[in-house]
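Example S7 (structure tokens).
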């Protein structure tokens, strides 16, 4: 796998807002990906490459890490917290190959989440990071060779981690919509409502999911495509409620 995506990547230059170190991070070249489908919770699936592997930017000197959209934005007090609590414990990663493995990518996500906790990031940042971490676990799970030794054990372990991060994303998004303004992580209110509805369904909060989906389907601000997705989820929700013996009325 290592090096297989080298032609689709380039080294983008960054300056760390914490320690002012100049470094490069692997970034997917625009136009080099081909999307083949979108999951119900809006994870985009691409042919041959997993762009999610490259979404976390990590300073190799001080250990500051965040999703690319959040990386430049730190306050003075957040800089202080990261310098005091992240940097002294940070050990540079050994990932100088042409590509990142799933394990290397997940390590970066874990470091980014530790940074988010230390800098007391907004709930929305924690939600988005947790959602993308869940997606990485799902992608890793789907990439496994069914003939490999220990396939079922590895698959189950990754699925548990995926669900744990989806749960965190759900909890954080609910808190975010109660305390923050839109847009949120580049998403408008209907999109966030849609994601929450899907996650609510995933964790058995059927009535909350149904309420949000109904709101979306009748919304003036939601796009036609999002409304179509909401209708599809509504059908899946009805099926799951019937299986669970829950009255949909």
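Recovered sequence:
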């Amino acid at each position: 796998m290592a090096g297989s995506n080298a032609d689709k990547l380039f080294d983008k230059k960054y300056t760390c807002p914490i320690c002012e170190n100049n470094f490069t991070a692997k970034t997917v070249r625009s136009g080099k990906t081909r999307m083949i489908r979108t999951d119900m919770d809006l994870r985009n699936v691409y042919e041959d490459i997993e762009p999610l592997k490259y979404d976390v930017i990590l300073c190799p000197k001080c250990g500051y890490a965040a999703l690319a959209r959040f990386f430049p934005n730190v306050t003075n007090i957040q800089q202080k917290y990261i310098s005091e609590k992240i940097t002294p414990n940070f050990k540079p990663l050994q990932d100088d190959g042409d590509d990142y493995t799933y394990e290397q990518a997940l390590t970066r996500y874990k470091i980014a989440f530790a940074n988010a906790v230390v800098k007391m990031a907004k709930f929305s940042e924690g939600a988005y990071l947790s959602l993308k971490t869940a997606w990485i676990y799902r992608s890793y799970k789907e990439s496994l060779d069914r003939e490999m030794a220990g396939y079922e054990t590895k698959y189950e372990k990754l699925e548990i981690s995926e669900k744990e991060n989806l749960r965190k994303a759900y909890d954080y998004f609910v808190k975010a919509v109660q305390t923050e303004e839109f847009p949120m992580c580049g998403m408008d209110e209907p999109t966030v409502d849609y994601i929450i509805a899907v996650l609510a369904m995933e964790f058995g909060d059927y009535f909350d999911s149904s309420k949000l989906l109904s709101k979306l389907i009748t919304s003036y601000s939601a796009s036609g495509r999002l409304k179509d997705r909401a209708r599809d989820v509504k059908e899946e929700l009805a099926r799951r409620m019937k299986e669970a013996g829950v009255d949909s009325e």
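Notes on this example. Strands lie at 9-15, 22-28, 35-38, 44-46, 56-58, 65-67.
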